[in-house]
């Protein structure tokens, strides 16, 4: 029986050594060596029972002890390698060299013992029939060196096992405890053999079990345990919920996140099964193997949103093996995405739609509500930049937030509102819900914010009635905003409705701007002169220079069709500079011809911002060697009032240089007397509006007389423009007017005609 077991164990160890070598894993060499050495140990020991030759029996005995010591060393190497303590062996230490030296001496001693029997001697024991039963061993004192070496090696192995048992992670601990128990049991049986009365070496009976366990934990056990441990730890620590069901739908596993959702213990399992049953009721398993959907659930009294994934795993015969449910909580992500979407579509200050979103929503709204008539309202706060400059951005933001609240106060379900740019807002509202008076009321509410500053806040509204629901909302807004320009600056009227004439004017204005530079370079602009006549003898003293645009295709374009456009676009300074230089050049020619008349030129508001008025005019005087007194400068009161301090300084410098400064259109503004007080003027030009037939009443005459009297008191020359009748000339002369200008004497005419008629200084 003993021999049969040893034989079976030997064959099994050889087979395991073969498979361990084929594995080619990190521990393969050690496991192979352990199996081979254990097999050789068993083979050499068992073979002793089949030999009658004493010398051969001693040789087999020597091999057994040599292989036995090698098995111990292989076990040590396996122990320190099994937990991946070291992936490579370092050079042997001094202690290792001592051990190898004594082991080598021991090996030599066992080999020499084959002939000397100084350590172990064998005595044959026979059966009653005279045949050999076994070889009885007698141990002599040298054998104790081998025993000491084995004890030392065993202690090293035990210490290594204990160290790794308590220091390594708990996952490895069970494997080391099992190996330790196996090894201690083998040591115990070995001690019993040496110091007891046993005939047979019992420890070798367990070599097969030790090798099998080493084989198992090296190639299957640790990897499988590691995999299970890793999967368990990973599943417990992932951020989403995982629920596993058996083939019949019984829940057998919930990770930590799943337990937080469904509950702990049997309650959680039951809740998870109920959730799966509802999914199966809604989506039968026969119709799908993999299902993804979004679900909302009440978790801890909070509504949460989950991305659900349900997967059924089947075998080769299409039978359900297991299924799992994965729940990813997307509540915060959806909230964040919704917040980002809101920020991308809305204005951060007012909460209204931003420009691009307003246009997008407007198009959608108009196409959905095809039977509702809509109005698109655009608003613009007059001179909003001044609010920020005067009162600070905090007050400015309050104004904008209030305007946003006011424009969206229609509160209609079929209306949308947006902030287009800084102080420009838009609303698309049903025509039936719009109240024109609400805009005036909104203006009053807006005024309250700055009422304590004694500042008038004016908000204009342009209204476009939507006729084509498929028109681009951007174009609708442009038309409504364009309408505001027709009332901008009007302190009484704050709303205007769009009509086609506004677009026509806009197109006309754009054409003027686009054609201006080319017309300038082609010489299409020319200077006309309107005579200014001495009231005493009707002698022509000079003229006012006026610009005319004579197009080869369109003929003469009236000044009213292009002057306001050029002023608005900021291009008027180019035309003014051209007229100034043309007048200066003409004055130089007149001077050479002995003509002493003057020419008056106009200065517009934009000239002060786009060019150096003083530098340009004085440069012209020097360039053409003319007297500055002959190049009169006309400026309207409206221009002065836009920045009176800066303009007053420039006009003072021009007057000091010798230019005659004329105030044009006196009486058309609101602060004429203040202007006369603050700005030094040489001449005053009475607005032609006083001479219009319907306005030329006695009261108008009294006002004109008073103005002339005041101007004389201030030492100013008085010019009256718009003179058209003889009665007007008589009245003005009697009132003290110095110079007449008007159609009664001549309309503006080309320079050639003016020179032909008046350059000799006489009357026509």
Class based on secondary structure composition and strand pairing: alpha/beta
* Uncertain regions spanning at least 5 consecutive residues: 84-89, 221-228
Strand residues, percent: 15-25%
Radius of gyration: 56 Å
Helix proportion range:
40-55%
Shape: elongated
Q: Number of helical segments? A: 26
**Widest beta sheet: strand line-up:** 13-14-16-17-18-19-20-21
Question: What's the main sheet like?
Answer: 8 strands, mixed, barrel
Average pLDDT reading? 81
Distance linking N and C termini: 157 Å
Give the number of DSSP strands: 22
Which features would summarize this protein structure in a list?
764 residues; 22 strands; five-stranded antiparallel beta sheet; single chain; 19% strand; alpha/beta
